Fold:
Amino acid sequence: MTTAAMLNGRATAPIESLLQEQRIFAPPAEFTATARLKSQAEYERLYRQSMDQPEQFWREMSDRLHWSEKPTVMCDWSHPPFARWFTGGKINASYNCLDRHINHGLGDKPALLWEGEPGDRKVLTYRQLHREVCRMANVLKAQGVKTGDRVAIYMPMIPEAAVAMLACARIGAVHTVVFGGFAAEALADRINDAKAVAVITADGGWRRGKIVELKKNVDAALAKTPTVQRCLVVRRTGQSLAMTAGRDSWYHDLVAGVSDVCPAEPLDSEHPLFILYTSGTTGKPKGVVHTTAGYLLGALLTCEYVFDLKDKDVYWCTADIGWVTGHSYTVYGPLACGATTLLYEGAPNFPDMDRFWDLIERYHVSVFYTAPTAIRAFVKWGEKYPQRHDLSSLRLLGTVGEPINPEAWTWYHRVIGGRRCPIVDTWWQTETGSIMCTPLPGITATKPGSCAVPFFGVDLAVVDRQGRELPPNVGGFLVIRRPWPSMLRTLYGDDERFKQQYWREIEPFYFTGDGARRDADGYFWVMGRVDDVVNVAGHRLGTMEVESAMVAHPKVAEAAVVGRPDELKGQALAAFVTLKAGAEPDESLRQELKAWVGKEIGAIARPDEVRFTEALPKTRSGKIMRRLLRDIAAGKETVGDTSTLEDYSVLAALRQDRE
Ligand code: WTA
Structure:
């Protein structure tokens, strides 16, 4: 069903909620003792202030950043939906991530810990990282890149990727990072939309023991991108390459002898920092524009309050820098608060399925942030892999990207967190720039599957079609009712699409596209994209709840549930299921699973069809592409964009296996 169709539905509750998770985990006293926020009263005071006196609140918070010139107006909302934050201010993101800490005596603290997939390692202190960033910034200038120019970054997860982002930020060039797993076509589309003048890439990167030929893809892409003048190539994998004279240069040649002095450009608060393309699970990629000051403040504050980052922490976010999570929580956020952040190049199952746990043990990672899709893979692989390692350095766990099924949550809590680490289930989007809804680890009692409470300044609500707030436990549309500093400013080159996409459906609010409910304690439960809602015999169900019920079965590793046309019921539920190692995909299990869901959440949610599969179709960032499964369940050919699909062979396999 389309968003519009579901928004126009007649039932009072736009989405019915069947899942009622009762478990509650209080924050451990040892954690609270040292946490930045220690009491509920403190959270409430700050949250109230952020709502009631926003100018004062944001003025105080903005002091956490270094300004070349202080802003005069905190938020200008005179031309909605186009917000301006911290107007009058001048600031530089790279200065805030580097120089500021060196000036405060942190020059010798490790900023980046890096490990390549083959096992090679590097540590860059704040001083060393600063030096590399200044040198790359000088190279960019020498290549003719100017303030405001767009630069595409298409890199493996190596230190130079972070260096490139910060070098752009230093001179006011706008980076657009394209995930290194995207093919030439997707890269060319993004470069063309952004009209990038330069590309920073590498010869290749390592993934599961093989070279990903990045430069080859760049060559194919650049055949179609008239705006690109220069291509800088970092040597990583060392194979021989074709270099196009006049356009391509080895970075190590350009940087030889270049000065490491490069003053950070003071930029307007609203100077664009980056464009990041997001396709979500549907449609043509959108160039989400983030600007400097508000974005950086959002990333910084959430790192401090949500990840509780402190001087001694070793922090690891597993997201690729090609995603917003890699931007905000591998690079800008942790560096803006002077933390030590780990970067790992490769796959979680190379050389074996314990690579992440091995990294945590060896680097003494204390704060670990990953995605539900990864956690479900770990569950599937089995406990023996984490059990091989000493994970006692961990003190806090986080998750982002999708609703986390309560079963995956409790596994993460028990097996990885040793029952001692709080879990922050953080809800946010590429568009929101930083975490919007989350537990605060020292004070919020967590409920598996709930992203808990809104962060400071976030006026989050569950509403009906008319924008009226719904009572507790009634499912509806998740909106944000006022601007926030790290919000997207527009879609690059397309103000109209920006308005249409986010501001027209539930005027005058920002519509997230997600369905949610809020419980009687004020906790938010995100039920997935409203496009994924299914209408069964007049009941609108969020498929995520049915999936959670399936995953609670001991033999199920992962499940995706979609609607398919049904003459009697309007839509019927089709479940695609992957099993844990050792489970047999047979008829008796099929019947058992249907009965199980009926018993767990009610007969209305009992799947009409269960299909076993080896794998589910996912985007590159690990989100299940239910749109493709809907086509398969309906027996249709897949139409629309599949360029973000991770593994095409999954689709063919799914088509063959029918009940
Ligand atoms: C989903 C990733 C439930 C949601 C930072 C959102 C979540 C979309 C959560 C944004 C969560 C993200 N619980 N759902 N904790 N986090 N989502 O742009 O549907 O890749 O709208 O940003 O992911 O995905 P994006």
About this structure: Residues 126-142 form the longest helix (17 residues).
